[in-house]
Amino acid sequence: MIKCLASGSKGNCWAIDDGKQILILECGIPVKDMKIGIDFQISRVVGCAVTHTHKDHAGYIHQYEGCGLKVWKPYESDSTLEVTQIGAYKIKAFPLVHDVPCRGFLITHPVFGRILYATDTEYIKYRFRDLDCIIVEANYMNEMLSDDLEGTTKRNHVLRGHMELQTTRRFLQANVTERTKAIILAHLSNDNADRDKFLTELSPLFECPIWIARKGLRLPCPTER
Amino acid sequence: MWIKKLIIDQFKGIHHAEYEFGETINQVEGENGSGKTTIPDAVLWLFVDCNYNLRFNPLVAPLDMAESSPSVTAVCDIDGTEVTITKIQTNTRTETEEGVKRSSNNRYVINEVPVTQRDFKKKLLQYGIDTDLILPCVHPMVFTSQKGADMKKILFDMASDKTDLDVAKTSEETAYVAKLLEKYTSDELIAKSKATKKKSDEMIKAIPERITGLEQAKVAADENPIIDEINSVEGAIELGEAELKLIDEERAKQSGELEKIRHALFDAQRAVVDFEKEEELNEAHFKRKQAEHSLEVKKEINDFSARLAELHIQGKRLEAELSSQCAKKEIATKQYRDKKAEKAPELTLPRKLTERDMVCPCCGQELPADQKQKKIKENENRIKMQKADNEAVLAHWKKSRDASLKKIADEGQAACDAIREIERKQELLAISIANTQKELNLRQTRLEKALAEETEQYKPSEETLKKREEVTVAVKDAKRQFEEASQKYMESDPVERKKAINDTLRGLRSKAQDLTNQLAVIRKNSDIDAQIESLQNERMKYEQSKATAEKILYQMDILSRMKNDLLVEDINSHFSLVKFQLFEYQKNGNYKEVCVPTIDGYRFGESTNTGRELRGKIDICHSLQKFYGMNLPILLDNAESLNSYNVPDVDRQLIMMRVTDDKELVIKHD
After folding, report:
1. Per-residue pLDDT band at B226 (split at 50, 70, 90)
2. Is B368 among the domain residues?
3. Which of B536, B547, B554 lies nearest to residue A42, judging by beta carbons?
4. Which of B174, B211, B540, B553 to mutate to test the interface with A (most CBs of A within 10 A)?
5. What digits encode the pLDDT tens for the residues B339-388?
């Protein structure tokens, strides 16, 4: 089960649950809300992995660590490729393009297969084989950007640190295979994104279903039945 | 119930007044001081003993009268029946030294029948008027002037009774507590969960410090190089021990060989001893053989000597016998002679009778003839018998002497025969003695010769001498060999070599011990790691029990909101215009219980205007009456704040006092 506990600039948190062990991605919401999201089964949590230091991803790390959870922070390392094993989940971290050091995750699980998690990046320079599930950022649409903010820091942050829908589309077209069973579009901007438009744009291009990440989204894992 | 007529006597500023009302809306109009407020005061005093300002047991007696009996009579229509209710107060006023003393006493009359206060309340209840609930139902200011909590208490009583379990069962979100609520009450669950959470928090709080303590106790070192070193040292120890073992085996072998040589020496020595023993036996045998001859002669000499002695003894015996027989012969000869010379025995005859015999011995007279004759005859017989006896004795003696003679002669003859026999024997014995002596002498000579021969010495044989030489040489050889082997054995003692190896081993072992100790210290790290892991597991256990408690509290919170939503809905369904806000979210997201009446979305006391609030208050009275199932007039003073077109539509009697410039009090109704 892939659960979206929160996605977006207000906070990000995901739970990947194989029925025995839960892997938490991002510590961007209070532990209290994370616990609600995993039905308070804290003892099943084997660890957390965080992509970068921004508040909406790492803002509550101290609370998570305060709960005795181990938090993996590969962005602290200078090495470009970090690998770890958290419970049954093997995670490879790869660099993304953001205004702070940021990592994407390729998660391999004996049952779920290969899950890609990449958000807060201008683009992804890698290609991945045999992905079963892709959770990827689709932050904004160029045509929806308001001209009022032109030249402001916020606009620059959006442009430089996040994926435009077409970038996302190109990435998906390059990486989605027959094996891919689910695509989740994550971290949609509040102002510059439109769920329906995104879906209308991308759905015809891929055979597998596409979801928009939102709090409470629950998907059976790719190979789960 | 609606009041058709109100009769007031000696009440406040009014001496006597009678007011008639309509069934629905009544506007009581007049200038200030015209007695408008006295009307609601009188109604409230009649039913609940307070005035419109909510003062209980108010002073109602006119101030200008020393003694008065204020009374209020309401002629009411209760479901079509006219009921007259009267309350009369008797006031007495006595002036004492301490001042003016007042006392009052209330009396009640219903339909002209006086009743006690208790029966008054009871009777009213029968008419559907609960005096305990009247106030908020008739006085629009009462309900909202209470504290929020008191309002809420009344409002919550209006809600239908739904248990937490019933509500919890209706939603997935509260499914977990729904199960628990079958066993526990909400309060129990919340208290229990809070306690669990607190306890878990305390337990969790202590763990990180313990983990830090354990982390500090760890030693930064890698155990692998030490394990390698230990392995190499242990290998060296093994080699050293193997060498020692080899040396010991070699030594044991040498010792075995030496032992063999020692045995050979013993064998040779034993051979010498055996040989000498045999030689001794040989010599003894020789000597015994040498002595054997003389011994034989000696034995013969002894035999002959013994025989000679025996013969001499025989000779002596014979001599003794001879002398005895000779003596016997002499005795017999003498006896014979004696016997022959023996004389026959002398035989006597009885005496012949004399004259004295013929005289009586007693008287001395001659005996008669016949006696004399008799006596003579007897004497003659006696002599005759004696003669026969004498002859017999003599015959016997002759016979006996002859027999004795014969016997003695025989004995003498036997002795003579014996003597002749002995003498013959003596002759033979003499010959024997002579022969024996001769033999003895011969043996003596032989013995002398044998003894002379015995002085000859034992001489071992040539072969023996050769053998002796052999065994002696063998012993000498064995001894020499043993000495050489001993010398060699002593010289080849590996004690020094062993000492050196043992020293090395000791060093190695102590090093191994040191390394093992070091390893133990490092390995303690893994023990510590295990302890830390177990602490982390323990912590996770408490985190889980905390989370479970939080889950219960979270769901109880949801349940509380669900319940509150239902409650609010339920309560507000009783009101037409007013909606009570019973819960609100605080800035921190928590949920807080409040009690704020609102009308048209405006909160009372904050954002409403007076008219709107009055509408709301009338609605509250009306709604409460409906809820309690009562039909009472609603009394509103200061009603001029409300336009007449704004008066809410209520199906109760409404008596509204409004200030106008009318000098006289006017009651307007349909």
Report:
1. confident
2. yes
3. B547
4. B540
5. 888 888 887 887 777 877 788 878 878 888 888 888 888 888 988 998 89
Which tokens go with A52? 């970068």
| pLDDT computed for residue A225 by the predictor | 41
Is a pLDDT exceeding 80 seen at residue A223?
no
Across the interface, whether the CB atoms of B547 and A40 are under 8 A apart is answered yes
The set of long-range contacts for B466-475, using a CB threshold of 8 Å and a minimum separation of 24, is B467/B275, B468/B275, B468/B279, B471/B268, B471/B271, B471/B272, B471/B275, B472/B272, B474/B268, B474/B271, B474/B272, B475/B265, B475/B268, B475/B269, B475/B271, B475/B272
Closest Cα in chain A, distance from residue B544 (Å) = 5
Range of the domain at B99: 2-143+628-669
Q: Using one digit for the tens of pLDDT, what is the confidence trace for B143-190?
A: 999 888 888 888 888 887 778 888 899 889 999 999 999 999 988 999
Show residues of chain A in contact with B544, CB under 8 Å: 41-43
Residue for token pair 């559907």: B128
User: B476 in a domain, yes or no?
Assistant: no
Considering B454, B478, B505, which residue would you say is the last residue of a domain? B454
Tell me which of A40, A44, A65, A71 to substitute to probe the interface with B (most B C-beta atoms closer than 10 Å): A40
CATH number at residue B651: 3.40.50.300
Tell whether B216 is covered by a domain: no
Q: B139 and B284 share a domain?
A: no
Domain locations along chain A? 2-224
pLDDT surpassing 90 at residue A48: yes
* Chain B residue nearest residue A65, CA to CA: B208
Please report residues of A whose CB lies closer than 8 A to that of B204.
Answer: 68
Chain segment A64-115, per-residue pLDDT in tens: 998 889 999 999 988 888 899 999 999 999 999 998 999 999 999 998 899 9
Domain membership of residue B36 (yes or no) is yes
Q: Read off the pLDDT band of B9 (50, 70, 90).
A: very high
- C-alpha B522/C-alpha B227 separation (Å) is 11
**Across chain A, where does the E strand assignment appear?**
2-6, 13-17, 22-25, 45-49, 71-72, 82-86, 89-95, 103-109, 113-118, 133-137, 182-186, 210-212, 218-219
Q: Whole-prediction pTM value?
A: 0.56
The domain covering A2-224 belongs, at the CATH homologous superfamily level, to Ribonuclease Z/Hydroxyacylglutathione hydrolase-like (3.60.15.10)
Residue keyed to tokens 């007529």? B5
Domain boundary (B454, B483, B517) is at B454
- Asked whether the beta carbons of residue A39 and residue B536 sit closer than 8 angstroms, the reply is no
What is the ipTM, given to two decimal places?
A: 0.88
With an 8 Å Cβ cutoff, are B544 and A35 in contact? no
